[in-house]
Specification:
mainly beta, 320 residues, paralog of FGE (formylglycine-generating enzyme), single chain, 4-stranded mixed sheet, 3-stranded antiparallel sheet, 12 strands, 3 helices
Length: 320
Amino acid sequence: MTEAIVSKSGPPAEVPSTPAAAQERPEMIRLEGGAFLMGSDRHYPEERPVHRVHVDGFWIDRTPVTNREFRRFIEATGYVTFAEIPPDAKDYPGALPHMLKAGSLVFTPPRRAVDLNDWSQWWQFMFGAFWRRPYGPGSSLAGLEEHPVVHIAYRDAEAYARWAGKELPTEAEWEFAARGGLDGAEYAWGDEFMPQDRNTRADGYARTSPVTAYPPNGYGLYDMIGNVWEWTTDWYGARHEVSAPGPCCLAENPHGAPEEGSYDKCQPNIRIPRKVLKGGSHLCAASYCRRYRPAARHAEPIDTSTSHVGFRCIIRGPRD
């Protein structure tokens, strides 16, 4: 057992790694790395500019981490996720006292047309929502064991990765994997807008789906696009940080923007840095956003968990 986290603002709990996980990898796929075009100039400004980068080889989980896998971590370590810990008032100036309770953000479909610029019309901070109660008190993981775990803050994902003997991917590593070998293609599956019945409820899933419900990409990886957003290690910047030494050269294993530039300028009193999320989720749709693409990216505060954010892990280094 390990000591549980006791503060949302403190360091992550010390969770031991499991070296055996680096030796037996049936749940992972080896990517040899290479050069690819990262980003997009055709959609949102934060995806710009398109630039050529190179990533070294790495192993990556075939699927997002599931509820079954995360449960094993919790049972082995006694870890307590951020969503289970009441917020510290000093971290959230101006927060109403009655809101300083443990919980997480849950998507709550509105019953009428609402202002799409006001996210609070369809998201609710629900007391008692966490990975084991994904839709709030009274909900459970019944039937969801092979769905991706959700309500995971950044340090929760880090803690799991450390226990498993793995790491979280950079944005460049994640995007390289998501493209599945289709360098420059608009979507992970090619140039078709929306194959099959994803995100229409015609597939029978109103929220998350089992992690192998859809075909894998060209690298054999499932759910790189859709199902849940996934954490990366890069700090968020308003545009890509192009780190190549010149126009003739590749950026080698880039690591994104500096932490200082990741803070939300719209909330200057709340100093919570943000990481890059990738992949879109089951909520992405043409009627609202176009973030179901490998180049798409989103800023997420490291203390925030929601009902549509999960993660997967990698192991860096040469093939054994």
